[in-house]
Amino acid sequence: MRLDKFLKISRLVRRRTIAKEIADQGRIEINNKVAKSSANVGTGDLITIHFGNKTITVKVLKLAELVKKDEAGEMYELVKEEYERDFR
């Protein structure tokens, strides 16, 4: 499954176009390698997403074409969540 589609279906990102933009800016990694929006995602992959001052790492548990809103969280497992501190 494409990276941008997985992020949209799993509800990690609200829109597929936003997922594509983030990936094309080099802010998403799959297994510690920068990934484009068209990269393939498989079960067991680690996806790291850099949002502004927040970075999350998730492990892909399953892939599905259609998922209900309350079941979207079952597609991944949150591995790590970090916040950058502003020391101004």
Automatic annotation (TrEMBL):
Residues 1-62 form the RNA-binding S4 domain. PROSITE patterns: S4. The keyword tRNA-binding applies. InterPro entries: RqcP (IPR025490), S4_RNA-bd (IPR002942), S4_RNA-bd_sf (IPR036986). SMART domains: S4. It comes from the Bacteria. SUPFAM superfamilies: Alpha-L RNA-binding motif (SSF55174). The keyword rRNA-binding applies. Associates with stalled 50S ribosomal subunits. Binds to RqcH, 23S rRNA and the P-site tRNA. Does not require RqcH for association with 50S subunits. Key component of the ribosome quality control system (RQC), a ribosome-associated complex that mediates the extraction of incompletely synthesized nascent chains from stalled ribosomes and their subsequent degradation. RqcH recruits Ala-charged tRNA, and with RqcP directs the elongation of stalled nascent chains on 50S ribosomal subunits, leading to non-templated C-terminal alanine extensions (Ala tail). The Ala tail promotes nascent chain degradation. RqcP is associated with the translocation-like movement of the peptidyl-tRNA from the A-site into the P-site. Belongs to the RqcP family. This is RQC P-site tRNA stabilizing factor. It comes from Eupransor demetentiae.
